[in-house]
């Protein structure tokens, strides 16, 4: 970041104070005003619930231009990475290291990740403590946090080698844990990873093979899963990433930080949206019920939202949604599911919403989750696991952002302030004098 010659001046209408603040320029995107001296100089905080105008850090990982519908990982457009950028592990290497790997670097990285896919054998006892009908996200919050109690040799956050090993462990073990959560929920034995398969094919193997029957790799479906992972790998300072950074700012270990990110991702306004979008389609049930549903969405008192539509940052279109839509058609064609009633319902809903004045005027377009739910359902992934797949994909983004934060000399413990509106100081009355 560079200092701009322009400065920002804050002055109060009553003339009580005036403050000149530096402006910094990034490589692209909005400049920022450095308000760090504001409190010291004026005794006031800024007020920005939801971080509508606040940059909480500087970062060189992911850039989004919401108006242009642009998403760049380390400068590379998501469209190029998804189509010509190799597989998900190449994207992981890029996010972690800043550059795409050459052939030798790729081989070494794949080899290292592959050799860390097994989890400690004792992890299975953690799974057995959960009810069979536990939500996979609650299982993942618990088991990912529990990794910290197995891998003490990589918990020193001040040691770059430890940070590297933890990053690899998390990326390598997440598919194993997500698949274990699924197998446990359906009462099938856990399936060990296979080192001869790609990252995504191995995940499908751990999900869908049993001791009685191997999983037959279908390249179209494996590529679809790989694309889901690439598209969800990072998304700059969203709610779960900010949660990971905030948790990490206290010096917490990386497994605990990623568990915190998973907990945040679970919410329906964030990662839970793909599950919520599919449940919504199932609830609507048929094309005939769409007008009634749309009427409910427009009624502010109903509390009903069109899940899979809208985004805090993308206000014209979500570039991930375009790519996911393509994959959706590919997968349904491969599986002969073009006439699937839920898919037809989704397409009818998409058409109506894209033409309806309510959605058009508010710039509400389908987001990636509108289509990713349909693709995952076609792959045989149960709805309750959708957010778990998102967590698996986002782990690399979280860990890259966490590593960047730890190495940032400007890093401080995250400690937001508040506008206090509760009772000022008062005395505790005896119990017989309370109302
Ligand atoms: N359905 C109906 N109305 C909506 C929707 C929706 N999905 N999203 C926003 N609106 C309305 C909202 O009520 C408001 O209307 P008005 O101006 O009349 O008060 C207007 O559009 C602006 O919305 P907002 O609440 O200011 O937008 P936001 O930036 O705070 O919220 C969002 C963004 C993603 C939380 C929201 O669009 C939403 O809840 N969408 C559904 C959930 C969803 O699909 N989330 C996944 C996001 S993509 C995955 C990820 O990155 O996590």
Report on the structure:
With 435 residues, the protein is mostly helical. The chain is 49% helix and 7% strand. Strand 5 and strand 6 form a beta hairpin. Helix 3 (88-97) packs parallel to helix 18, helix 7 (160-186) runs parallel beside helix 8 and helix 7 packs antiparallel against helix 18. It starts with a strand and ends in a 28-residue tail after the last helix. The model has no long low-confidence stretch (mean pLDDT 94). The protein binds carboxymethyl coenzyme *A.
Short description:
By secondary structure, this protein is mainly alpha-helical. It is built from 18 helices and six strands. The structure holds carboxymethyl coenzyme *A (CMC).
SSE arrangement:
Blueprint: E1 2-11, E2 18-25, E3 32-33, H1 38-42, E4 62-65, E5 70-73, E6 76-77, H2 78-84, H3 88-97, H4 103-114, H5 123-128, H6 136-146, H7 160-186, H8 199-208, H9 219-231, H10 239-249, H11 254-265, H12 273-284, H13 290-298, H14 319-334, H15 341-355, H16 357-361, H17 368-379, H18 386-407
Antiparallel strand pairs: 1-2, 2-3, 4-5, 5-6
The structure holds carboxymethyl coenzyme *A.
């Amino acid at each position: 970041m560079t200092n701009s010659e322009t400065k920002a001046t804050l002055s109060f209408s009553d003339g009580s104070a005036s403050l000149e603040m530096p402006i910094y320029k990034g490589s692209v995107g909005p400049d920022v005003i450095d308000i760090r001296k504001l409190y010291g100089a004026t005794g006031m905080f800024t007020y920005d619930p939801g971080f509508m105008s606040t940059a909480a850090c500087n970062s060189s990982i992911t850039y989004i231009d919401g108006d242009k519908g642009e998403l760049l990982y380390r400068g590379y457009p998501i469209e190029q990475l998804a189509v010509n950028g190799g597989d998900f592990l190449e994207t992981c290497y890029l996010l972690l290291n800043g550059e795409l790997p050459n052939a030798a670097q790729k081989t070494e990285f794949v080899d290292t990740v592959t050799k860390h896919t097994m989890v400690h054998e004792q992890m299975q006892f953690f799974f057995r403590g959960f009810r069979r009908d536990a939500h996979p996200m609650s299982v993942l919050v618990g088991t990912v946090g529990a990794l910290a109690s197995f891998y003490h040799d990589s918990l020193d956050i001040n040691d770059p080698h430890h940070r590297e090993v933890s990053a690899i462990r998390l990326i390598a073990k997440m598919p194993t844990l997500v698949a274990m959560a699924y197998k446990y929920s359906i009462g099938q034995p856990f399936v060990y990873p296979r080192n001869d398969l790609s990252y995504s094919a191995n995940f499908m193997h751990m999900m869908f093979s049993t001791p009685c029957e191997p999983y037959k790799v279908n390249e179209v479906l494996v590529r679809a899963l790989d694309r889901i992972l690439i598209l969800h790998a990072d998304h700059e300072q969203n709610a779960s990433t900010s949660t990971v950074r905030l948790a990490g700012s206290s010096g917490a270990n990386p497994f605990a930080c990623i568990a915190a990110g998973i907990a945040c991702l679970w919410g329906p306004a964030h990662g839970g949206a793909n599950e919520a979008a599919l449940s919504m389609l199932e609830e609507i049930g048929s094309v005939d019920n769409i007008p009634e549903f749309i009427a409910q969405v427009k009624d502010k008192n109903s509390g009903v939202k069109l899940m899979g539509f809208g985004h805090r940052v993308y206000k014209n279109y979500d570039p991930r949604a375009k790519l996911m839509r393509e994959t959706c058609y590919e997968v349904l064609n491969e599986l002969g599911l073009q006439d699937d009633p839920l898919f037809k319902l989704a397409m009818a809903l998409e058409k109506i919403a894209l033409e309806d004045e309510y959605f058009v005027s508010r710039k509400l377009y389908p987001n990636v989750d509108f289509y990713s739910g349909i693709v995952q359902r076609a792959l045989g992934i149960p709805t309750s696991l959708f957010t778990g797949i998102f967590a698996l994909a986002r782990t690399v983004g979280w860990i890259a952002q966490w590593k960047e934060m730890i190495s940032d000399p400007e890093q401080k413990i995250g400690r937001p302030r508040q506008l206090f509106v509760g009772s000022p100081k008062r005395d505790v009355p005896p119990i017989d004098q309370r109302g």
